[in-house]
Structures are given as structure tokens and as C-alpha cells.
Amino acid sequence: MMQQYRSNSYLFGGNAPYVEEMYEAYLDNPGSVPDNWRAYFDALQHVPATDGSDARDVAHAPVIESFAQRAKANALGNKASSADLAVARKQVHVQSLIAAYRTLGNRWAELDPLKRGERPKIPELDPAFYDLSESDMDITFSAANSYFGGETMTLRQILQALRETYCSSIGAEFMHGSDPAEKRWWQERLEKQRGKPSFTAQEKRRILDRLTAAEGLERYLHTKYVGQKRFSLEGGESFIAAMDEVIQRAGANGVQEIVIGMAHRGRLNVLVNTLGKMPKDLFAEFEHKASEDLPAGDVKYHQGFSSDVTTPGGPVHLSLAFNPSHLEIVNPVVEGSVRARQDRRGDKEGAQVLPVLVHGDAAFGGQGVVQETLCMAQTRGYRTGGTVHIVINNQIGFTTSDPRDLRSTHYCSDVVKMIEAPVLHVNGDDPEAVVWATQLAMDYRTAFKKDVVIDIICFRKLGHNEQDTPALTQPLMYKKIAAHPGTRKVYGDKLVAQQTLAADEPDSMVKAYRAAMDEGRHTVDPVLTNYKSKYSTDWSPFLGKKWTDACDTAVPLGEWKRLAERITTLPQDFAAHNLVQKLLNDRATMGRGEINVDWGMGEHMAFASLVASGYAVRLSGEDCGRGTFTHRHAVIHDQNRTTWDEGTYIPLQNVAENQAPFTVIDSILSEEAVLGFEYGYAAAEPNTLTIWEAQFGDFVNGAQVVIDQFIASGEVKWGRANGLTMMLPHGYEGQGPEHSSARLERFMQLAADNNMQIVQPTTASQIFHVLRRQMLRMFRKPLVIMTPKSLLRAKDATSPLSEFTKGNFQTVIGEADAQVQADKVKRVVVCSGKVVYDLLRKREESKAHDVAIVRVEQLYPFPHKAFAAELKKYPNATEIVWCQDEPQNQGAWFFVQHYIHENMSAGQKLGYAGRPASASPAVGYAHLHQEQQKALLEQAFAKLKGFVLTK
Q1: For 7-26, what is each residue's pLDDT tens digit?
Q2: 19 near 10, Cβ under 8 Å?
């Protein structure tokens, strides 16, 4: 009977999922399925496709339908006995049981070191759910679709193998993926080992050594620096063993750099026991003896570090990113840093540089930047070849007193299912399982270049920090923790029981580590002290420089014309849209100097001249290729294109034979993660003009954490220089409260210690020069550009060709109207941005030629010398008025008034002209906008009233 079953069992119905899985395997590799299946599917290849094609991958529906029809024919023809049918049904049920364990077995895995919860009721994991009973346990079934080591196995053997594989110390989630090859990869790697890794005695000793180091540092600090915050790793020591395996296996696989991002928990342990920071240096920070050469500095558990260590594949450079208390915000910063390093190496697959992100369980599931960063993982502009995520899962989160309030998902890692990333949940009390899970994760990333998660389920021996008393809110949990001997003790006893170690060796290792701590010696061996990669970045040329350092940003006329021709010429037979072709024709005319240059051309020529000179340009944002206001058109689309993968042309990539790269990316709909990514990119690449452009300046609100914690303060806290450029469309055009203001006042409030540059250029030549200045000057600070909207096409904002072939960025632009005679000026109106053109028109209408108009193009650092020189031109002026578009409590007013006052002469008065204070950035009614605009212009020329500051 069994022989007959084996020859035709696959022809009976009710097994559609199993058949489809087998068919997926066949399509990927015909040799991977049994002969009878292969013959059956081979025959199906001769079934004509419904579209008349001869494609090998026929649709699944006809396969299942063919299977069902043949099964029905067999039943009607009485070709099999009722006994055969019964056995066939049981085989189907066995396959369903296997599929259930692959999908749900993780829910039954032994993952909690504290053993607090009972195994949940999951009927699909019980053979009885499939009408399989004890009487079936010794019946032999086909196991050809598994990797347990036999073509046939008894049900008892299959069930044991499933539980060992999927319900031991590792709970694997991978069946949510859509790639059959990846699912089979996981099945093979897990099922062949039956969930039981095999390590040599030497490898086990190394694991115990890392556990000893992890526990040893925490206990040393706990006794020597009582009560000081350190965010202890006790209870999660296996994480250090995992990190050690990441580095060693990465190095063996050819990785040469690893960039690590993590928050607080275990950070000091990683610094000492993974990166090799000298313990004595850490102790100095606890004793407040560390060097204080930064304007602000930061706490020790925010600090970054870098080192070089040896691995089986050669030296590996390790970088731990600096990270503020906003936990997961470091994720995109790390990804950007990694992408910059990969680009510098030409590492398009991410084989040489690896990102590793370490998460807490509550933050991983709770903070939105995680999702935003994951969303970028496989996009062209942001992919890094797969990230290894490690979760230090304390099972308690931050201060939540009830697990039901932690999240709405079963696992904290469920967010990664949006990108089909596999997850290995692993019991932190089984360090061998943790290390094996790390090996699997690293091998998966190497094979598929995708993200993977290791969720180390452990506990937190102390409170959120060392001053907390967690038993106040978690009495049951902390009774369990108090009784737990510690992971190192559990594993050490296990190795002694196995006779892998002598009885006294675990304690000897503890004493040896303690001695190393007392002497302040390295605990990572060996750390390379004199190694320097040819790909390392040297920031020294940019440090200690001043923003006032001279820099020639003009472009010679001949080079200008050559570049202009290159960026306005399309390949033969390339059909640009009529509107784009007209724009290119106009730009060609501008390039010849026949008409003034507009904003888009000025910007393009800045990029072209930079890449031609060897400076790479990277521009990203939500609509960068075309430009939100259709002024850019850096990417031109062939109107005759037939596929998504072709039919675009980027002129800026074709300006010179050996030019530097020009990259333009239409980003995902994210501000926080994308801006964080670009900050990270700029932090690792000072010789690339890295730009993030907001679709509307207001949208930068969604990235405020990046601005506050990295862009504004990264240098004074951590000494990290950065040349990121932000372009934020800003201006009052009557478009309402969310499309007017880039919140200039927020940047002004953050401006101190010469930490950034804030500019608001008003002409095409100004945007040209400021972009070139950002790279040509040996000075790297974040550059915030308030870019216009209406000025992009305004004739007023165009510039003659001479302003590009001569001159530099002007921090202050003075009065240019010949009708305004300096000795007759009674009032100077000072402004910044688009409003200057409104003021010029208003003055012309009013014939108020006794009013001079001065525009401040650089708001910070404030150009005192240039501004004072302008004011001195008007010795008879008694009134200075600051005029702005923004409401009085917003914009630059409250910040520049002190700078203006500092440069006023005795007896001069300072007043304000602009919108009244408002809780909203702008009004939403067009008529009210016009009324306010009219009123502020009248104020600029009317008698001073309200707040007046006198020198």
C-alpha cells in the first residue's frame, strides 16, 4: 500500500498549499524536489500558457487546478483504495504540521530566561489538530520537503525534529517572507542542525570569556562607582558574545568596516569589551578626570569611539556612533555613514562595510524613526546591503509596569515584517544559541544583502538606571531576577558539567578579568594601535578654520560656457517633454550670457562646476529630481520611454570625463530618517556636497530631533564636524500655515558657538556662490539655506553672467538704486529674503528715496563687519527698521535686533515692521494674507510706533 501511495500520493486533493510550496521549490531549482514531483511539474511545462507564451514559470493557479482535476479523476476512477486515501490525507496533514511549526513554532520556543509564562495554547502545533493521534506516531511518512536528514521518517521522529528545531532556545520567524529561496535557506540551515549548534571547546571557552568580561565590567563599576548611572547590561551579557561573533564572522567574510549604533543599555560594556576602550579612560570619566576640551561635552553613555581589531579575515575598523537620549534616532545616522563609506570604496553590494544597529525592546517597537529607516533599506539611494539588528530585549521596556502596555504587537520586532526581514528570537540564558543565531544572521546578510534581526530575550537585573528600584512596580519579575544566578554562572556550570572546563576555570577567568580592571588594561585582544586604512577620512584640514576665511567661488567664463553647453545638451533621439526642452533652451541662452541667469540655472552651474572639479554632490529629498516647484529638472525623462528601468538622463552626470559623482534621489516620504541619513553621510564624507532638501520648508518640523541633537549640537557635544547642507523652501506666498515657514526662528535659536551657517540668498548668483563656498572653503559646518519659492522664476532674482564669473557670496547686499543718495537717507530698512523685492516695489510706488534698503543674506554667523560698513554709508539716518514676512514672534527679529543694535550709532532708533505675533506660522485666508502683506510694507515706511529700541 505504501509503495502505491508513494507513486501517486501527490495526486490527491486538499493539499494545495503543500503543492504550491513544492512548485516554488521546483521553479527555483528543479533538482531540489523529489523525482515524482519533478516529473509531474516537467509535464506541466508543456501545458500552453494562457497568453500564448512559452515562459517556464507558468502561473500557480493552473498547477493547483491540474492537481485538483487529476485528484478528482483518480477518486472517480476508483484507482486508489479508501486506505490509500486515508494515508494520503495523513501525509497532507503531516505536511501541514511541518508548515505550522515553521510558521508558529517560535511561539512555543523556550525563550524566557525567567520562565515566567506558560506555553500558550496553539492548536496548530498539536498533531490532534490534524487528526493525527498516538496511533499514528510510528507510521512512516515522506519527509522529502524537510531537511531533517531522511526521505522518510516516523511521525514521532518528525515531531521531535520540529520541536527541537523550532521550539528550543531559538524561535525563528522567516515564513512571512515572499522569496521561496530565502525560506528554503532558513529551513535548511535550521533543520539540519535541529536547533543545536556545535561548538568546539575553544569556541565555548571564548563565549564564556566574553560573558565573564560583560559581567565583570558591570560588577566592577557597580562596586567602585556606587550609584552612578551606567545603564547596566547585567542580565543581557550574551549580547557581548553576539557582538564578538558579529565582528569575527564579518571579518572572515571580507567586511573591513563596521559602524555600530546603539542607545544606552550596555554601551559602556561595548566600549570596553568590544571596541577595546582602555578601562582606565572609562574610569577617568566616572571620576570626572577626563579631558574637557569641548564647549559642552556629553555624558559618558552617549559617547562614541573607534578602533581597529584583528579578525580571521584581517583588520576590521569599528566605529560606535555618538548617540543622544533619543534612542533610535541614531539608526538613519549610522546608515548614512555606512553608505558614505561604501561609496568611497566603490562597495556597491555592501560587502565591505556593515551597519549594526542595537535596539531596546520598547524603543524598537515604539519609535517611528525605526519604521522610516526600515522603509529605506532596499531603496536605491539609501540601501547599505542589509543591516544586522540586535535587540537587547529586557521584557520590560522603560518604566512600564504592565506588559500589556508595552505594545500592540506580539513581538517588539514585528515592525520589521514590513520589509520581510527574518527574526531570530533567542534565549539570552543560552549563549551558544545566541552566538549561533548571530552566525545565521551574518550568513543570511552575506547571502541576500538584506536586513536581519537577532532578538536576545534576557532581563534587566537593575533598574532602568542604577538609581531606580524596579521592584516598586515589578515585584513578581524582580523576585525571579533576584533568584537568578546570572548567565555567566549558568553557562560556566554547564561547561564544567560537560567537562569542557575544569571546575576552577570559570572562577579563575573572573579573577583574571578583575585584575585587568584593577590595572586598567585592554580587555579586547588584540586591538591594533598603529593601523590606518587607506579609506579612512581625514578631517584635520577642516578643523580650527573660520567662516570668514577667503574663498574664490567664481568660475572662468570659458569653463562656464563649456559646462553650460554640457548640461543643456541631450543625447540624440532623446525626447524631452516640450516644457523641459524649452527650459533647456532657455538655460543654453543663459549659458551664453544672452539673458540673465535664473535660480535653477545658477544652482545647476554650481553643481556642474563642483563635480567637474572633483567634488561629489549628493542631493536628496522628496521631490529632488524635478524639484517641488519644477525649477530643477536634474533628471530628464524620455517621453518615449517604455520601461521604468530606462529612459532617464541626468546631464550633471555627464559634464566631464573624469568628473566626481552627481547623485540625485527622490527620497521616501520621510523627513526624520532621510535627514538623519544625510547627516550621517556628511559626517563620514567631508568632500561631498551632501544636501537634504525639504519639499516645503515647514516639513523639516518632522526632523527636529535630528536638528537639535546632531546638526546643531554634535560638534560642541562630541567634536564631530559636519558639512551637511539643508535647503528649505521658505516664503510667504499666501499658501497657508503649513506651506510658508521653514521656522527660521528655530534655527536662529539653536545658533551659537559658530555651530552652523544660516543664509537666505535672494539671487541666482548668491545660491551659486554659497553652494560652491560650502565645498571650496576649507571649513565644514552645517549650512541651512532658506530657499525661495516665487523667486525661482522671478525676473528680480535673476543675475547677469558677470556675477558668476566674478565675485563671491555676499553676506550683506547694500543699496544699489542710484536715486537713493546716501547723505539724504533718513531711514534704513533691513530685511532678509523675498520681502526685499516687495519693499523695493513699495519704495518705487511711494517715491521714498530717502529710505535705503539693506538685505542680510547671512543671518548666522552674523556678518558684523559687512553690516556695519553698510550702516556707516548713511550718516544722517536716524531710524533703522527691521522688516520681515514672518510674524513678530517668529522669523529672525528677536535674534537680529541685538546684532543690529550693536552696530547702530548713538541716537539711532530701531523699530519693527511685519506681521503681528501669531500662534500659527501664517494665515490660511488669501485675503487676510494680502491685507497683512500690505500692512507690513506700509509699516516699513511709516512713522515708528510700538517697540522701539534706542542706541
Answers
A1: 344 444 445 556 666 676 67
A2: yes
